[in-house]
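Researcher: Let's try something more involved. This one mixes different molecule types, so please make sure each is placed in the same coordinate frame as the others.
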Amino acid sequence: MSRIVIICLFIVLFVIIMIPFYAVALSSFKPGESLIRYGLNLSLDFSIMSFDNFIYLFTGEHDYFVWFWNSMTLTIVQVVLTLFVSAFVGYGFAAYDFKGKNFLFICVLLIMMVPFEILLVPLYSLINDLKMVNSYSAIILPGVANAATIFFFRQYLRSIPKEIIQSGRVDGANEYAIYFRLIMPIMKPSFAAMAILNGMNSWNNLLWPFMVLGDQSKFTLPIGLKTLLTPYGNNYDLLIVGSFFSIIPIFILFIAFQKYFIDGMTAGAVKG
Amino acid sequence: MIKKFVYSQKVAPYVFVLPFILIFLLFWFYPLVNSFIMSFQDKMLGQDPKWIGEANYSKLLTDKVFLTSIKNSVVYMLGTLVLLIPFPMLFAVMINSKLMLGREFFKSSFFLPALTSVAVAGTIFRLTFGEMEGSLMNSFLGLFGVEPIKFLKDGEWSMAALLILACWRWTGVNMLYYLSGLKSIDNEYYEAASIDGASAWQKFRTITMPLLKPTTVYVTTISVYAGLAMFTESLMMFNGNNSPKNIGLTIVGFLYRQGIEKNKLGYAAAVGIILLVIAMIINLTQLKFSGMFKKEED
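Model: All components are placed in one shared frame. Result:
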């Protein structure tokens, strides 16, 4: 197979992958009624294109930036807590041998294998009993000891030499001081990888937050965008430009931290 | 005294894993057990449950809508397996070959769709598959003289639309998994094969594919999981959980409809248990079949 064939194939694939992004970007300059009539399309009709949607996004009366702010806050708090807790647990699994360790680790693997969706109903009724409906803690808490993240940190920490821990003990540091002062600083790259991956998941999460949050002022961006589509009429002007605008932060994050994204995606997942 | 106890080397590991134990018990084990119990009950939110034995299960097995949802989920899952394993593998091999230019560029651009939320991606594809002549997919098909298709009203077409959405979002991610699998293959195998005069296809079949097996097992496992649990894609594509003749209804969609929309918690819990059993059977068979259990002993 020649080089030209391969490269042509990838260029075609690239174009196919980019068309939806291009169409959204293009459509955010078109009036909503054009979307209702023609759906998403690639026609470059300058006579109907304008900055009206963008002006409306930034000056109009809607909750878009409330949702944006909510998503930001929720993502940051969720990522910080999840990383802190999961790394702590991951270190426990990687650094020690203790009774019940294998059993507990099987529990971690089990969570990774069972679809979260089957817990929707009992978890919702639990949240209801705990009077946590409509609160961000109901979104954050169940995922704070994230199985996949624990698994990743445990894999990562297994490669750290045990001598570091030993030398800490010799110097008289207690077990927690060893973790916080000696181990955590070494973990920086793995924190970056997991922060980005968890951040992406949290920023994009729809189903569980949608079930937990009833109060419009608490909506996150994906929920807000979802509610713009209703059976009674669709607010396409805001929807399309809002969708476009919501992708931008995560794109910037990706471009800035590409390497960590890819590490987080693949490391720990596959061992040959 | 307490401080000394908590600080001792024997107790410390338990302190480290304690957050996991607590979260596991409260938000995973308890709901799961509760789900199992609820599946034998007639229960509404905030009301006392009524024990009805296996009635939920026997009702489910004759519920045509539920059977439709299983069919849709299984077809979707099989579709993602057929489309999202061989092609990403092939693309990864190609992108990894010496002939390739602009490797990093393609790698990252193929990943971009995975960054969009399902809310956004679903909206984009809902509009792409609009039934009007001018919408993206139909105008493309129009170039080949195909009449406009009502994608979201015809079961087979809407399944195709859901699968296209899945391919768009996940091809790049699976390709990355395969690329990291390829990294671990020693180049010497290929050199030895070249000396023996093996063709590119022979090398792919006898070296690359077998050595990528751990990656394939992993990708298959997560695809089975994700395929069976698919819900939000359909929710966005059909602008709600109600599609014409339930053509877009998935198992989780059915669970959501019964449990959350209709408040039949017991019935929905039984759906969850059935889904759990299906997912476990498929994954454990798959893992056993591929000999993965032997590998995990460390």
